[in-house]
Amino acid sequence: MVRSQAAIPDGIKRSIAGGRYSEAADALRNLARSEPSVAVLVALADMSFQLGDLTEAKENALEAVTTDPRAHAARVMLGRVRTALDERDAALADFRAALELAPPWKAPSGGGPIAVPAHQALHNLEQLIYLEQADNLAPGTLLPAPAGVREMAQRKLNQMLDDTSREIPTIPLGGQYGRTIANPPLVLRDEAPPAVCLNRRDDWSDVAHTFKGEGKGIACVDHLLTPQALAQLQRFCLRSTVWRRAYPPGYIGANPESGFFSPLLLQIAAELRQAIPELLDGHHLNYWWSFVCQHQRPGIDIHADHSDVSLNFWITPDQANLAPGSGGLDMWDVAAPDDWTFDDYNSGARDIRAFLRQEGARQTSFAYAENRGLLFKGTIFHQTAPCRFADGFENRRRNVTMLFRRTRS
Q: Is the pLDDT confidence value at 295 over 90?
């Protein structure tokens, strides 16, 4: 039985941060034999997972959850491993359990104001109003604020965000109205997925050929999802209050830990692996998320993914894009060097641009299109292209990203 409360030693943390996963895993195995704490088991499960050893990852994640069923990190780790193993029902149950253990919307105690970036506050306000209207709920059911208060809050938040030359301010939200906007009630749009999620096509081999050949690690796929799957995913994104992570440039993220999980998402990934065995045989779904951009603010800056193959696809209707031919993804024909750490290629924009200039990298822009997907080698550098979408909650630019990694066992 696990009795130790041992934390992860700093030396092992440095190995993990430096991307030396095998080194970290060996050290964690030794530590697990002498001091098998939940933290150690979760870290070992994570290292095994990153190395593609799903069997060892599941063993350690299960032991951690069995030892402490209320350990949030352990439950999330087990959900990710079960997703990779295509144990979809069990994975979804784990993510639901993790939400109950540590809901991202839990407000701090004391009843005081909550500091929230202005773009997060506007998004939450707009979504609560949208949900009341879409579900024919009486005004005030989700957001107990009079119409005049709502209109004034929208106007003030829009004024804060209109000047794109200024950094987005963080504002204190207090009282019943403000705290509801800062921490909306959890709503998850739950639907059974359609029988088929990917559009049937006979050119998947051509997609793989492009990726491996002239595309240099990039392939564009239009009409990715069936109309039924696309509509369901749009409903899920519009009607689920899972958008809990605000990023300074002005976009907001959702991930499995915040509720961005559904049978539909996992089925899309499973069908894609079956459709393109030339690319994804021997790979598993490692992680996924969605971003929503707003107020003509920049999207994700230049970076690379921690994946072997990434899928990025867009779901907002084309009519919302006020600059057709733009608003998609800018990509370069150079990948991150093998010795770069995650922080190097994910958050070091200045060094990345200097590296690309040194390498003489060439940029290609892929225009935004509803239901268009880009499959690419994850370590290729890319960024959100400048975009201009119409005002209104439904018109925000939304993308979904899925990361696939090689499986070792």
A: no
